[in-house]
Each structure stands twice: as structure tokens, then as C-alpha cells.
Amino acid sequence: MMTSCSTMVLILSSLLPCSLAGGLENLRIVDSLLRNYDRRATPTNTMGEPTDVSCEVFIRSFGSISEKAMDYQVDLYLRQHWFDPRLNHSDITQVLDLNDPKLVQAIWKPEVYFPNAKEAEFQYVTVPNLLLSIKPQGQILYMLRLKLTFSCMMELNKYPLDDQICTMEIASFSKTMRELILKWSPEPVKLSPEVKMPQFKVQDVIAEECDESAVLGNYSCLAAKFNLHRSIGFHLVQSYIPTILFVIVSWVSFWMDVEHVPGRVALGVTTLLTISSKSAGLSSESPQVSYVKAIDVWMGACTAFVFLALIEFTVVNYLWRRASRNRNNMWPSDYFIPEDQKETNKTETEICLLPLEEIKNGCTGVRVENGKSSPRTVPLCDRSKRWEARYAMAIDESCRFCFPLAFLVFNAVYWWYYLFQT
Predict the structure, then answer these.
(1) At residue 347, does pLDDT exceed 70?
(2) Which band of pLDDT confidence, cut at 50, 70 and 90, is reported for residue 137?
(3) 57, 188, 82: which is closest to 135 by C-alpha?
(4) Cα dihedral angle (247, 252, 254, 255), rounded to 10 degrees?
(5) What is the DSSP code (8-state) at residue 97?
(6) Rg (Cα) of the chain, in Å, rounded?
(7) Band of residue 187 on the pLDDT scale cut at 50, 70, 90
(8) What is the pLDDT of residues 313-330, one digit of tens each?
(9) CB–CB of 88/124 below 8 Å?
(10) How would you write 142-188 as a 3-class SS string?
């Protein structure tokens, strides 16, 4: 019976293609190597040396950077290389790719984890996304695909004109440095050319060994630091340009007549409410932190400019009304009408057409012969030449240039400080 079975195997082997027959032979070799294989021991345990494992990361997607949650998501391939002398066999002449989870589980693999990962998912669609390759001379490649959410502690003092550094850490979980040492490969971190983020650009990636001995203990640790630069285009369109326009619109009141109270009040209150609602919307969208951000400084300054424009009109209107009230109190309505003409109800315009005789202190006066009474001088232009009215008009005229100049100075200081100085 045994002879017939052996003969059958030999016949089937002769009928199989050469490549398939070679693959079956390699699998038989692997089965023979795994009979006395202990996956709990490190490959160099018997040598008394730590096992060197080189790691490299290929990032397929990079995004979902959240300032509120202080995290980001990546979809990556983790590749680990090491030498296992127990799987070194002279008959293995080609790479053996093993993706059967049960067969992969029988081989020792580094027990690594991600210390700063908040969530992790292993990809199972449509099959478990892992691969273990046994190369000639005992070289092993272990690759798996993961979806991870890493924490990223951001400094938002310059938000949204900021640059951030987000870190990805890989460390040994159970093996100390006496048993396992992690190292970066010559090309440690690669980003797919298709990696694009809506608000950030990856300027540089720094791969280094991290010092987490105080937290993790004497365990090997690797870190990849991503230098991210935030693109200002979105915030420029959504935040900066609209608020600049709101501030400019508030200056229109400086060119409106002082007596146009409803129009100036409506303009000032509308712009103030609009920029306040814009500021509240940005505050709800931006992260809540205990310190002042760059966008807070900008919105506070723009709100202050709009508010000061409204306060300016309040002062101007007060001075103008005070001047009008003093004129009404000083000259009764029939003051300019002679006693013998009061019954005729001549208008003030008619009185103003009386002969001009003298000018005093820049004001025009007319001498009115009041019947038998002594003549008196009436300063007709006193209505527009009182100091309150002059100050009101001067304030309006000066604010037409002072407000734009002050806003330009603020912009110069703001952009210089947040883009260049810090």
C-alpha cells in the first residue's frame, strides 16, 4: 500500500508543472523546518544577541487632521526585515510568500506596537492584508496593512498660520533591548505620490530613534516626525478677506453727512453684528484652547475697528446735536424778525437777504433797524461755526484717513509677526 502511494506521488509530481512542483518542494522544506521551530524564542536567542529588526513604512493615505481631537489618520504598510537562521535552508532558492494566517502565526514575528496610537484597525478586505516572505539565506520580510489614528499634540498659537509636527512611534511591546532592537531601514518612510491633504502639506519627514525609556522602560523605539505646513488659502477666503471687507464697509459712514443718523447707525450696527457673528462661527469651528490664537487676534482687531467706527459716529453726532441745541437756545425763532414785521411772518431766508455790513470773528452779521430801537448785529453763520460743529466735521474728515492708515499698520505688524518673526 505504501509503495503504491509513493508511486502515485511520484507520478503526480512528474505530471505537475515545474514551477508548481518547485513550490510544493519549498513548502515541504518549510514544513520540515517548522517541525522543531519555537516561535516563542527570538531568532538569535541561542546566540545570546538581540535580534535586529529594520522597519520601513509606506504611507498610502494621510489625512483627517483634527485640531479639536488633536489626532490624524494614516493608512500604511508596515514592513519589517530580520534574519532568522532557523529558516535558513540551502534548498530554498526563491522567495516564498506566505499569506495563510495559520502558517504565518507559526513563525516568530516582532511584537511591535504604536505607543501614540489612539485607534488601530487591521485590514481584512478581501483577505487578511498580511504577507510573510522567506528569502534565501534566512532573510524574512513581514508586511501588513493598518489603518491607524495617532495623537498629535499641536501648538495653536499661530493658528491658522501655523506649522505642526506630528509623530508616529513604533516600539517593542514585550522584548527589551537585550532581545530585540528596532532600526530604521535606509528608506524609512515613503509617502505615496497620491497623498494630498486639503489644508496641510508635508514638508519633511524625519526618522529617528525615540527616547522613551522613562515611560516605556528599556524597550527599543522608533519615531517618524512629519513636518506639516498649513495652507492659508482656505482661511484666507473664508476668514481674512470677508472680515477685511466688513472693516472697509464700516468706513463708508465717514463720508456720509453727520445729519444722516439712521443711515450711519444702520451701517455701523449691521457691520458690527455681521463681524460678531463671523467671529462666533470661527470660534465654534476652531479648537478650544486656553491661550490666544492668531485668528483670535485678527478677529478681535477687526471687531475693534468696526466698533470704533460706530463710537466715532456717536461722538460726532453728540457734538453736532450739542451745537444745534445751543443755537436753538441762544436765538429765539422770532429773534431775526423786527418788531414791526413780526406779523408778516417773513422767513429766515428773507431775513438773511438783509444788507451785509460787517464780519466779526469769521461770522457774517447784518444790522437790523428795529424801529426806534438801537441797531443790533445778528451772527447768521453761528450755526455752522460753533466749535462743536467744527470739531465734529474735523473728526469725520480725519477718520477718513486715520482708520485706513491704522488698519494698514496693523496688517503689516500682524503678517510680519506671524509669518516671519515667529
Answers:
(1) no
(2) confident
(3) 82
(4) 160
(5) E
(6) 42
(7) very high
(8) 888 888 888 877 655 555
(9) no
(10) EEEEEEEEEECCCCCCCCCCCEEEEEEEEEECCCCCCCEEEEEEEEE
Please tell me the distance from the alpha carbon of residue 62 to that of residue 57, in angstroms, as a whole number: 12
State how far Cα 351 lies from the chain centre: 69
Q: Enumerate residues 6+ apart whose C-beta is below 8 A from 183.
A: 52, 53, 54, 55, 222
Phi/psi for 123 (5° steps) reads: -85, 125
Decide the pairing of beta strands 200-209 and 96-98. Answer: unpaired
DSSP state of 374: P
How, if at all, do strands 180-191 and 51-66 pair?
parallel
DSSP string of 233-282?
HHHIIIIIHHHHHHHHHHGGGGGS-TT-HHHHHHHHHHHHHHHHHHHHHH
Question: How would you classify the pairing of strands 139-151 and 130-134?
Answer: antiparallel
With residue 326 as reference, give the H or E element that holds it. Answer: helix 294-330
- CA-CA distance, 114 to 149, in Å (whole number)? 10
Give mean pLDDT, residues 351-370. Answer: 41
Tell me how far the alpha carbon of residue 64 is from its chain's centroid: 12
Distance CA 268, CA 77 (A): 57
The set of cell numbers assigned to 156 is 495653536
